[in-house]
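Q: How would the structure tokens look for this protein?
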Amino acid sequence: MFGDQGKYKLVTLVLATGLASPTLIHAQDSDWPLCPRPLDIPARPIVEETLGPEDIHLLADEADLVEGGVSEMTGNVEITRGRQQVRTDYLTYDQEQDTADMQGSIHYWDDDVFLLSDEAHLEFDDGTGEFTGADFRIQDNRGRGYADNLFMDVGTRTELKGASYTTCDPEDNFWKLTATEINLDHVEERGSARNVTVRIKDIPVFYTPYISFPLSKKRKSGFLTPSIGSTNQNGIDARTPYYWNIAPNMDATLTPRLLSNSGLMLMGEYRYLFSRGYGQLDLEYLPSDAERDDEDRHLFGYVHEQTFGRTGELFLTYNDVSDKEFFEDFGTNIALTSIRFLERRAEASYRGNWWNASVLVQSYQNVDRSIPLTSRPFKRLPRLTFNTALPKRSGEFHYNLRSEFVYFDRTDNDVLTRDEAAARLDLYPSISYPISSIAGYVEPKVGVRYTQYSIKDPLSSDNSSPSRVQPILSLDSGLFFERDTSLFSRDLVQTLEPRIFYLYVPEESQDDIPIFDSGVFDFSIDSLFRENRFSGADRQSDANQVTFALTTRFINDQTGAELGYLTLGQIFHLKDRDITLPGRRGEDEDLSPLVAEMQTVVIPDWRIGAEFQFDTNNNNTDKLIAQLQYNPGDGRVVNLGYRARDDRRRTRISVFDTLNSAVDIEQTDISFRWPLNPKWSIVGRWNYALPENKSIEIFGGVEYEDCCWGSRLVARRFLSDIEGDFETGIFLQVELKGLAGVGKKAAEFLEKNIPGYERDF
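A: Here is the predicted structure in token form.
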């Protein structure tokens, strides 16, 4: 035993013979379920003595000890210092210099890496080491490789010369990365490499003279994974994004996008984050589009959200494109190619304990070629609202006020033959008297809606200041019943909730009031209890009606979670509805459609949802939506959907006008992800329009996942414009586990289009 010398408290030498062969420990394999076996790492030497952070423990079969000089040890030599441990055949330890030189079969362990080497030099004083001919294994991600020379400053930096790296199992080297030099900065958590080649089955597939990469999830400037694809619209579509970590609270992504049919598009995204706000700026610019007579094309988008004061909120957005075909030409899904308007809005709002107020300025850019310019939405310059919402208490009067002032404008002398502008004031004070208990409630309510206009150059009449005053009376009531029950071996509480809602609004002619922002709400469960069947304030419906509704819920008896519900309801009209939108006839049916809605997860692994509307006046199904999902886990999911709508009171339009809620449609939608075995899976979706006998969107593909790599290949065809043209393309993603992936948009696309899809890599 050496005495206490220098900065070390204790240096211990123990001689031992006949050591047993070491057992094996395994790297964490929870993220590598398809690997045939975990990465084997020999177990660390066991030290039974308690050591301090500066203590060194030495063990060997034979030793020649020199006090204060160079000691020589042979045979099963073990050295332990903190979390660093070494086992070797031969070691010389210089006590004065606090260094060790080793030869033979060298095993090295620390918290991050395990090394095998034939020759090594350690300097315990500064925690550095140099290994020659080193095989290394990274303990937390199955990474392994080889370096001609490896230098490490424990916890600070690592330098590798003539290095290779892979995460594949030793028996299956599918891919390997080689580099002449790799430098890892563990403090900044950054790495870089020079003369890098990626090989697949020993075939070089990628080379770069220099790359940098993060060692953690912290952001770092550098090139991101490139992507490449092909479509019939744009030809080859290749992107090489560069990420710029500007500051801890802001970053940018700059992406050159090569379109073989059109040219080089420059894309940029800038994001920022503050303590009470965030925003994003998007730019796309294509100079001299070869497909459009060298026309310059662009997209600009900006959004900002901010909180202020105690409960204030600010929202800003501005969007602009160079032409109406931009999204059709460059959009990658039907949601983009069917955009009709781009919003430009600035809105500020504030909430108090019993009130809220807002101010808004809003306009739109029309990008739908099927909409006449004279049918564009009006600008709102501005819109002001003030609403009160006093707390509701049983047995007390509840006062409420909704108010709005808005100035509409659609002046464009290049398009319209006259100016269109108007101001509107809408006030709706009301008072109610709720009475409630655990068994039920009743709430009578009375209000008066007053609406006043000031119209510039009225079109429908000579009245430039029409107004409207209508009282609104309602009575809402409901009961609550419950019982214990069981379904599919689950103990449940079932509720029964009947509800009756009466509404009376006298008729008042509104033909002299033009339409600025009003439309008819889509009929649904919510429509049963609305005081107005029109959106906006340009129309207040007349009504004398009673709604009967019944809801039953199934609630988990142990957790209180709702596992399903079913609601049925129908409106009984006591008079005809004469108030309509221009060009529409009144409604004289005594009964509204019978509407039903249900959702349930009571059956294990199944999620079922449906919405049904049946017109009892003419025995016609107005709407039927059914959704079924089977998701038993293990990556398996199947979705079945059916959607049909038949509104005979409106003009029939093609199903391909996907944003018009008034069209007749009948569609089926099937999507799935299903493993064929532990490595192969198939994915797909088919959205089909039955009346037109056309597919709106269809794609299919395969996924492969192995121990060290995975891939996705998806072929896709989807509707791209209002003429019914289709876009076809192929998505390919390759992931080298522990390194990077190419074409990761394939996984994002599948997540958006297959409900319940979960990526494995």
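The two ends are 53 Å apart (CA to CA).

Residues 340 and 573 are 36 Å apart (CA to CA).

Upvote if useful.
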